[in-house]
Amino acid sequence: MANTIRASVIQSCTVRFNLSETLDKFEKLTRLAKERDGSQLVVFPEGFIGGYPKWSTFSCFVGERVSEGRDEFVKYYNAAVEIPSPATDRIAEVSKATGVFVVMGVIERDVGTLYCTAIFVDPVEGLVAKHRKLLPTACERFIWGQGDGSTLPVVAKKFQSSVEPTRTVETKISATICWENFMPLLRTYYYSLGTQIYCVPTVDSRETWESSMRHIAFEGRCFVLSACQFATEKDYPPDHPVADASNRNPDNVMINGGSLIVSPLGKVLAGPTRKPEDILTADLDLDDVVRGKFDLDTVGHYSRPDVFQLKANISP
């Protein structure tokens, strides 16, 4: 157990179109995870900064776009952040003040294109890496560009052991966003780089998501930390599209959470939670990764490189 760190997943949602209040919420939840649970690493959901526009269509039609959709995109564009920016500086300041390593989903603005991105923020080094979602899902392609192979980091980080403070624990951390987790070759690429703490910012709140996370943890022999938003209609502007416009109710659920933490043998360590706002925390014994590799290493002794080979283009 000496090779152990403590990590949390945060279930919450964006304060829609209010960056300052969203950053305040981030700080409050990060400090709570640190002060109450002793967390050393926290994972926030997909699009926590910038927001996830559930049910929005941006008035897109095959062959046509209209002015209402363009106006909606302006609002969404202005809610996104550049990387780096004062917003990421604020995240780095909180990380430094608390000593907590942060993985967070943000909507990134780069010139005229938005990206669904995960950032890695170290309490000592600040912003150390980012990952852009390789393939936005379905209608997300209206509003987000595609990432490329140049932002597929597995970040090496040394932590102080949470059970034996004189000991240093070496870890490798990755992030895979929402339905990217259904891309087998992307998972295999991260496994090949030795990911041990496989972070999953997401907004998929279906019951089937737990099965996917447990499968990936078991397959990759890694800890999976899945952080999902929980949002209701009151968390969106009054005129935002909803599932049933004839039955608007501030308490109608838009995104139903389901955050959880899973061990390298597929055991659920915390969650899934359906609370509107929650912090799930677990001790991650990195030796469990090695225990799992004993009988299954999908990029090592349980692979057939003479039959199958993985090729990754990691250039910009």
Automatic annotation (TrEMBL):
InterPro entries: C-N_Hydrolase, C-N_Hydrolase_sf, Nitrilase/CN_hydratase_CS, Nitrilases_CHs. Residues 5-286 form the CN hydrolase domain. One of its GO terms (molecular function) is hydro-lyase activity. The active site is at E46. The keyword Nucleus does not apply. This is Carbon-nitrogen hydrolase. Keywords: Hydrolase. The lineage of its organism: Eukaryota, Fungi, Dikarya, Basidiomycota, Agaricomycotina.
